[in-house]
Design a protein that fits this description.
Number of domains of chain B: 1
Radius of gyration of chain B: 19 Å
Number of strands of chain B: 12
Radius of gyration of chain A: 20 Å
Strand order of the largest sheet of chain B: 6-7-8-3-9-10
Number of strands of chain A: 0
Low-confidence stretches of chain A: none
Strand content of chain A: under 5%
CATH architecture of chain A: Orthogonal Bundle
CATH architecture of chain B: 3-Layer(aba) Sandwich
Strand content of chain B: 25-35%
Mean pLDDT of chain A: 84
Number of domains of chain A: 1
CATH class of chain B: Alpha Beta
Largest sheet of chain B: 6 strands, mixed
CATH topology of chain A: ABC transporter involved in vitamin B12 uptake, BtuC
Shape of chain A: globular
Shape of chain B: globular
Largest interface: A-B, 19 and 33 residues
Structural class of chain A: mainly alpha
CATH class of chain A: Mainly Alpha
Structural class of chain B: alpha/beta
Oligomer: heterodimer
Number of helices of chain B: 9
Amino acid sequence: MKPAVKLAQLSRGMGALIGIAAVFVVLALAGVAFGSTWIPIDQVAGVILGGGDKTQQIIILQLRLPRVVAAILAGGAMGVAGYLLQKITRNTLASPGVLGVIDGAALGVVLFLALLSDESNALVTSIAWQPVAAAIGALTAIALVFILSGRQASSAIRLLLFGIAIAAVAKAITMVMMLVGPIYRTSQAARWIAGAVNEVNWGEIQITAIALVPVMALVFLAARKLPPADLDEVSARGVGLNLPLFRIAIFVLSAVLTALAVAFVGGIGFIGLMAPHLARLLVGRSITIGILGSFLVGAVMLVGADLIVRVLFAPLEVPAGTVTAVIGTPYFLFLLMRKGRTHG
Amino acid sequence: MDKRLAVESLSVAYGQAKVLDAISLAIPDGKITVLAGPNGCGKSTLLRAIRRLHTPRSGRVLLGDTDVAKLSDRDLARQIGLLAQSPSAPEDMLVEELVRLGRYPHQSMLQPWSPKDADALEAAMFGTGVAHLRDRRLGSLSGGQLQRVWIAMVLAQETSVICLDEPVNHLDMAHQIDCLDLVSRLNGEHGRTVVLVLHDLNLAARYADRLVFLKNGAVVAEGSPRELMDETLIARVFDIQCRVIEDPVHERPMCIPMRNSSPRFSA
């Protein structure tokens, strides 16, 4: 009887995961098919598999596929970062945005662009360092939030409050940098801060993908320790998990994931908040499936947001991050109000 | 069970304030030892130091011949179980999921969930009478049920020593007795060594094989409940005048508090 119940729960989660994956595939193909000219799905598949004519190859492989792949990687990484943060703080309001990690990463990149460009606005160093700059910014932000929260770093509310404060400070410094910076860099940074996937190229995608592989491997390694992290600190130590140490490890992992998402695509807000929610709602409490689900839902959201801006605002290029923000902000307010009710 | 638990001149301090001052204590194997004393005497700190939640300023806790400071987190969790004073877990967690966490220290990358883990899980759930609740969410349980589930988690850990920090604090009278009867049964049937922190002196005297009185971070007295339930000693440790009589039902000493012996509350 009992194993059957377990199996039923697991397969419900698996079923939901397969459903999300199907939506993901359809949306990703649609993301490539839509644009100034519509290319039928079968031809899209043909080109990706190595066929098609020259024009279609250029449109798909050079223009459309990179932005879809970039959206998948960035949205997915953001979803997983949010999942980890919500799990470790035991608070559904936690996300890379709320904890100041996105703005920290943004500041890291803006400083990198400002300090390491020459007179003609060319980078004096390799673009591969951009994610490193984002990671330094993200890690600095989360470290500050953690240190400022002090001995009560286990209190989610304190972390969130300091996160919002750090985010505001990082945003302010970024603004100043943009106001005093060179015009070209400023307009580039502005688009980038809103979060846009249209200017990402294959080289940047390669860097992101290569870095994501070991980070995701670490995430799945850490996943085994996540169940006891649901407990209070003393009980977690009781079953052999050094929770304070593990919490730092998870914060570092989420900051790195956020940095990878943000480094080339920019500060796409609220995916890290919404994707894990939706994923948990769909697949249930299982952790491995929850992580995969968060990745896919995050990817679906960003690919979808990019599709929306392309369909609604063409020929203008509106950053996809504006869509996620427009949907995400009321969602965040809704969560806040619901939380207020259950605790009041 | 040759892994005898002993505390050797253990001192613990929070910053400058010394909370435990050179405590030495032998915990008898397979027995229930109750730590008691007035508020702030250091009894919870001692229990937590035994489970290495505090780093001692000096001294050590020995498990057999091993200093617990030298054990890994996992090894320690396989030998000493702990029920925290106010444990918490997500309300939407299932009862079985929580009890399952007791098996966490027995698993690793190379040792996934095994039949042995499943057996321990079932034994713990049936032993504490929570098996019928396995698919319930924690948020839907009563205080008494929830405490049983937490005890089941600690039991599933299959440690030779179990520490419980004021396990009956938030329970009503019926559930206090229910919970401590359960602990005493686990001690009797499974021979687990139990270290308990209890506030209520009469409950302490009723369930303890060995009673330890602490005050100001030091052990004032230790012995059987009959030895320690002494009117003069209780007055000295707890600042209260009392009469000690024999509980006619359980044939244990019990104390009837009368008047505070310290001048601070007198009119």
